[in-house]
Amino acid sequence: MRLDGVGRRYGLRGSWVLRGVGLSLPGRRLVRVQGANGSGKSTLLRLLAGIDAPSAGRITGRPQSAYVPERFPAAMPLTALGYLTRMGTVHGLRRDAAADEAREWLERFGAASYARTPLAELSKGSSQKVAVAQALMARPALLVLDEAWTGLDENARTVLDRSVAERVAEGGTVVFVDHDPARLAGAADVTYRVEHGGVQEVAGFVPPGHAGVPADGPRVRIEAEGPPGAALPSGLPGAPRTERTPDGATVLTASAPYSDALLRSLLAGHWHIRSVAVEEASP
Residues 118-161: pLDDT tens digits? Predict the structure, then answer.
């Protein structure tokens, strides 16, 4: 996906929120967007997701996309399960399969007890779980999250963290904004700053797992042993740092949000997992 000279203004005579934006978003990337309040972060995300159209320039190569706003417009005459089931059919699932997947996502987010509750009666946190679930059900190639963690409880935030890692591990691109600088700390592949109507890559940013560069936040340490003569699978989630043990095993260290996706990739390559440990960040 590529943006060339993209700009956005509101109204025929309104001021430009963004102007002359050019960037490329390849697959298998986690992209953080940061900037001051009112700088245009949400405008950029809505353009990426196709919610808004640019006033200037063009966007090409947009893949199947899903978008989660900070506040979910829940004033619809549907229950949580009914809404998610309908969205599942929109994404191409049969109705029974869509209902099963909707129940699974509600369970994962700790919202199964609200399945039959009308959307308009849900709390902010519960409706946000539904908003996130509908986006993840689509298994989009581009997932756009605008303060999507807002209002979620700790368990739901952890589920979303892991789901983001899964999307990237499966080849998708995830673009996110969050007010918490520790959100997915050390996991982003690239960071952009929105400022004065433009978008610039953050200078000096180093992707997580780069040799000799510790990631912020907790990390997972996995000791694994592969089949005789086998090399590590390519493109492992989280770009883990690797080292060999004296007895020939491999130790992989990556940002904690990537732990589940990294383990799945190793197991899929028939690697034996000796141990898994979480290393807290140094103060």
Answer: 998 999 899 999 999 999 998 999 999 999 999 999 999 989 98
Residues 6 or more apart from 73 whose CB is under 8 A from it?
none
Half-sphere exposure of 130 (CA within 13 A, CB side): 32
Per-chain mean pLDDT for the chain: 87
In this structure, what token pair is assigned to residue 186?
Answer: 């050390």
Task: Tell me the mean pLDDT per 10 residues along the chain, length 283.
Answer: 94 85 91 93 96 95 92 80 93 91 95 94 92 93 95 91 87 93 81 94 57 58 89 80 90 84 81 86 54
3-state secondary structure the chain: CEEEEEEEECCCCCCEEEEEEEEECCCCEEEEEECCCCCCHHHHHHHHHCCCCCCEEEEECCCCEEEECCCCCCCCCCEHHHHHHHHHHHCCCCHHHHHHHHHHHHHHCCCHHHCCCEHHHCCHHHHHHHHHHHHHHCCCCEEEEECCCCCCCHHHHHHHHHHHHHHHHCCCEEEEECCCCCCCCCCCCEEEEEECCEEEECCCCCCCCCCCCCCCCCEEEEEEECCCCCCCCCCCCCCCEEEECCCCCEEEEEEHHHHHHHHHHHHHCCCEEEEEEEECCCC
Q: 273 with 264: CB under 8 angstroms?
A: no
- Burial class from Cβ neighbours inside 10 Å (0-12, 13-18, 19+) for residue 219 reads buried
Nearest CA-CA partner of 61 in 26, 30, 90: 26
Pairing mode of beta strands 65-68, 142-146: parallel
Give CA 71 to chain center in angstroms.
Answer: 17
CA distances from 25 to 124, 135, 191 (A): 31, 19, 12
